[in-house]
Amino acid sequence: MEEEVSLISSRVQRLQPSATLEVADQVMALKAKGVEVIDLGVGEPDFITPRSICQAAEEAMEKGFTKYSPVAGFMPLREAAAEFLRSYFGLPYEPSHVMISSGAKQAVFNALTVCLNPGDEVILISPYWVTYPQQVEFLGGIVRVVRTREEEEYRFTAEQLEEKINSRTKVIILNSPSNPTGVVYDRTALEVLASVMMDHPRLLVISDDIYCQLLYDNRKPVHMGEISPEIFSRIITIGGMSKSYAMTGWRIGYAAGPREIISAMISVQSQVTSGANSIAQMASLFALKNGEKEVRRMKEEFEVRRNFGYALLKEIPGIRCIKPGGAFYFFPKCSEFFGMEWRRSRKKILSSLDLCEYLLHEAGVAVISGDPFGGPDHIRISYAADRKVLKEGLGRIKEALAQLK
């Protein structure tokens, strides 16, 4: 009897679907059945893209920007992205250091594709974005995790980094503000990483700054490249339009870095997707040049929601959470509820995955398990939702958790 051969490659069989998108699909399916669900899981602003940006897209179509774009992106948009990084962070990027991609996720994948050989190791600082380990392992890389603690506000030390570095270590991925914790790495934290990198000249940093404009409590933006010009040539900066400009569906991201690496990333993209959407690029160009007022308006509302939601979270017995400094997520610790009984189903809550299932079906609230983020004792709650929705959702969560025995 012939051995059955799978039609699916082994690397794809190992790939896990995005946990956040999976929950979004579940919510859509429930809503399609008429079930009322409050979605506090999605990592997406609830704001509609500002009208002025939409008008820029309409004008672009009328002017004929409906054809293929250059693989690296339209030069005016590359110039605008470089100018933003110069003015916001003080980084000396030029347009030739920048490429445009179909979202920041593609930019991260392009960067890892270019930098990694099979067996190369990548350091992630937990909790981390769910996509990082999946992309690394898909490309044949090996994930090494620096585990941080909520009690220390998820800060890492030089000793922790050094413990994970060896001759195969190639990349460290940094995400600030962080998805899922909302932690913002300050100058001191970045100086720690910079000092470690000075001792390891082979190391690269992928700095994922997709939430960089969503900083609260009057925090000032800070970037490793500005702190340590000596290692600026070993940093790949990732940005995009999705979070700060409420342009998630437009799918425009960018990467900035050394010309050699950016050139290689452009070559990869030329064989995978080609240039990003031409109309969305022109809308993004307008947003980068004229959207500061809109970004400020949305950021101020996110900060109000952060304060509002955090006060409600603190009223829930058994929940512990640090106050996020940026992005739009809470990452509360919920392990106190593990071992309790979901009475209606006669199941025990043994993990954050179980707790998320319980909250979805008993409270009608969608949140995300911390497991795929490297924080198995936690759940992720998005406050990118209207305050009324946030109040109702957190109220339901409080009531549902009180019913566990």
Question: Would you mind describing this structure in some detail?
Answer:
- A seven-stranded mixed beta sheet has the order 2-8-7-6-5-3-4, with helices on both faces.
- It has 14 helices and 14 strands.
- Helix content is about 40%, strand content about 15%.
- The chain is of the alpha/beta class.
- The mean pLDDT is about 95.
- Strand 3 (about 120-125), helix 6 and strand 4 (about 140-145) form a beta-alpha-beta unit.
- The chain has two domains: about 10-50 and about 295-400, Alpha-Beta Complex (Aspartate Aminotransferase, domain 1), CATH 3.90.1150.10; about 50-290, Type I PLP-dependent aspartate aminotransferase-like (Major domain) (Aspartate Aminotransferase, domain 2), CATH 3.40.640.10.
- It is globular.
Question: What is the topology?
Answer:
Elements: H1 10-14, H2 19-32, E1 38-39, H3 51-62, H4 75-89, E2 98-101, H5 104-115, E3 121-126, H6 131-138, E4 142-147, H7 158-164, E5 169-175, H8 187-198, E6 204-208, H9 224-227, E7 235-240, E8 253-256, H10 259-272, H11 278-290, H12 292-313, E9 329-330, E10 341-342, E11 347-348, H13 352-363, E12 365-366, E13 368-369, E14 379-382, H14 387-402
Shape designation: globular
Order of helices and strands: HHEHHEHEHEHEHEHEEHHHEEEHEEEH
For the record, what is the CATH homologous superfamily label of the largest domain?
Type I PLP-dependent aspartate aminotransferase-like (Major domain)
- Main sheet summary: 7 strands, mixed
Give the class-level CATH name of the largest domain. Alpha Beta
| CATH architecture annotation name of the largest domain | 3-Layer(aba) Sandwich
Mean pLDDT across the residues is: 95
Cα end-to-end separation: 53 Å
Helix vs. strand class:
alpha/beta
Spatial strand sequence of the major β-sheet? 2-8-7-6-5-3-4
Query: Could you tell me the radius of gyration in angstroms?
Result: 21 Å
Number of strands: 14
